[in-house]
Amino acid sequence: MKKILSVNSGSSSIKISLFEMPAEKCLAKVLIDYSNQQKCKATLTLADQEEVFIDHFSGKLHPIALTLQLLIKYRLLKSSQEISGVGHRIVAGGEVFTKSTEITSAMMEQLQDLTELAPLHNPANIAGIREASKLLPNCRQVAVFDTSFHTSLPPENYLYALPLEYYRKYKVRKYGAHGTSHRYVAQQAAKMLQRPVADLKLITLHLGSGASAAAIKNGCSLDTSMGFSPVSGLMMSTRSGDIDPSALAFLLDHGAFQNIDECLEVLNHHSGILGVSEISRDMREVQRQLSTNQQAALAVKMFVKRICDYIGAYWLELGGADAIIFTGGIGENDCLIRDMICRRLECLGISFRPCYNQTHQLPFDFSNTDSSAHLLAIPTNEELMIARDTFALVAKSAVEE
């Protein structure tokens, strides 16, 4: 048995899980919110238990250092030397990294060069790698890329209709994101349906603060909604999703933004559910005001409509689907959004059982027996996918040595 640390670093929070592999047993989860540097919040949850530790600490202590302290304090580790490998989620790997890779100094330089593909995420991911390498110098570090699952997209799906020289020279193309999540739930759907993932056509919907859709055929990503960056595609909590670039040029010319950096700030942090509702970025809060606030209702309708647009496109691209999968915070827990989406899909022969849709015993299938596709709500587990890839590379390196 080997212990693997799975690190999912975000711009304002970090999720770290300790796994016993290959049993895939999660020993503990740590969630650290450091959006407030003066009073960061740490939560430790043991396997199959409620939260057992909540504390506030100064942001001067790196979350990975704090996590190791907590794991040792609560006797989940005797010492940090027990850890065999650390896997890090990296949002953007560009065309350079097409699979999970063991981290080297040369690779770190390449990662730094790719920062502009995900300026909100990659710097935090890289900082996590540097800290883990410092704290665990003898431990193998592995990078697991969100974009790698989408490297199977054919050129007609990943290229933009721009002069081709922009792709040749600058590598401007669709890269996608959330690949770790889409890959995981596709594998879980195959288990639920008792069929090989290589035989399935799936539409996966990762609906959370960030949101994306993917068309998966024979276990490989065929198309996905996010593009060159994670701001495009579906409407999200604060990200705009697809928008006519001419509208942005118009707003820039009329002084709505002072420069392109301010424009990107609005697209990433002030748009989406928050921008339309003018209430909150949190879908739960927006839904509380559905009956009394027209903008809340409009935001929800737009969110649902754009998801259905992509489902329709992917249904045609795949030639139908064996299942539509809902995952992410909204996808897993919001029965109203699932209900609104599925009612719009009746023209595809899709039908569902409303009473089953209300259940919270994940995972579950809430489709009718005569539905043209299964409707699955599956909790994602990006940390487990990171641990799986990390363990595989650590085991491979051990054999080669």
UniProtKB/TrEMBL annotation:
InterPro entries reported for this sequence: Ac/propionate_kinase, Aliphatic_acid_kin_short-chain, Aliphatic_acid_kinase_CS, ATPase_NBD
Main location: cytoplasm
Site keyed Transition state stabilizer: positions: H178, R239
Positions bound to Mg(2+): N8, E382
EC number: 2.7.2.1
Residues given in the record as substrate binding sites: R89
Pfam families: Acetate_kinase
Pathway(s): Metabolic intermediate biosynthesis; acetyl-CoA biosynthesis; acetyl-CoA from acetate: step 1/2
Catalytic site positions: D146 (proton donor/acceptor)
Cofactor(s) named in the record: Mg(2+); Mn(2+)
GO molecular function, one term: ATP binding
Catalytic activity: acetate + ATP = acetyl phosphate + ADP
GO cellular component terms, A-Z: cytoplasm
Residues the entry annotates as binding ATP: K15, H206, L207, G208, S209, G210, D282, M283, R284, G329, I330, G331, E332, N333
Subcellular location: Cytoplasm
Keywords: ATP-binding, Cytoplasm, Kinase, Magnesium, Metal-binding, Nucleotide-binding, Transferase
GO annotation (BP), single: acetyl-CoA biosynthetic process
Cofactor: how bound: Mg(2+). Can also accept Mn(2+).
Similarity comment: Belongs to the acetokinase family.
Function of the molecule: Catalyzes the formation of acetyl phosphate from acetate and ATP. Can also catalyze the reverse reaction.
NCBIfam families named in the record: ackA
Quaternary structure annotation from Swiss-Prot or TrEMBL: Homodimer.
Protein name, as recorded: Acetate kinase
Species name: Liquorilactobacillus vini DSM 20605
Gene responsible for this protein: ackA
